[in-house]
Write the structure tokens for this entry.
Amino acid sequence: MHGQPRRIPYGFILAISFLALAAMFLVSLLYGAADSRFHDVWLALTTKPTGKTSLLIREFRLPRELAALAVGSALAVAGAVMQGITRNPLADPGLLGLTAGANAMLAVVLAFYPGAGTLGIVLACFAGAAVGTLLVFGISAANRRGLSPLRIVLAGAAVSALLNAAAEGIGLSFKISQEISMWNAGGVIGTTWNQLALIAPFIAAGLITAMALSRQITILSLSEEVASGLGQNTARVKVILFAVIIVLAGASVALVGNLAFIGLMVPHIVRAITGPDYRRVLPLSATVGGLFMLLADTIGRTINAPYETSVTAIVAMLGLPFFLWIVNKKGGGAA
């Protein structure tokens, strides 16, 4: 019909997002405290680097940006899954206690088991994210009026404050505040190839599992009654998906620290483009989340070079107004 605008094909949108992600990844390798040339990047990616600049790119900047890409994708997909299965437009791993729980458990490991290594930290972050989730939803469900989007967010804020205070208390008591603060800054600075090799498979497994269950998430996002009527085992699907969220959020904290708002913003932006079908939402959330995190990290490295600006601060500057807009538009009447 002449009066209806033509919808852009999803395949074209996804291809454009991949191209934009690749372009942003290249920009993130080129620019920083020490700018480099495309030739240096090419040498770092294709040969064993010998020059100072190509070595810096290969050993420091490349694992850092791969970590940013992985974490951005993980948090965006985790947020999309949370919003789908809880039907809560304010859901985000950083706002609902998951990353704070992982951060608190990370502090415990650094204090009591300093030799645990990367694997020990990862497993501890998984446990902490699970504890944060149980606390938030347990407190929210205790109210007789049941769960509501705003009540869950308020419980998440309270639990996050408690767990972050616990992490800071442990840091002061055991004189490891500086180590914990480095993780709390939410940056990818200092990411090594060994850390990336250990943590990236967890993120990859979580992303693949979430996308494999994308049809079930779409049905759950409509209503539990519809899902049950279509023969879906909602309890089992939810358990698997919450495990996926815990893995994605816990792995992200273990790699770069405590970050909020990415899992809130990206899914809303993506759904405005693709619609509510999670078979389309999740792949695009992964690419847009990775692109957003690469952009934030590049800004953090260049805006006040040679000094680093916290990625957490940059993300919060964009995320907090978006959060308030979502509360005003969708969550305000759900107290």
Remarks:
- The radius of gyration is 20 Å.
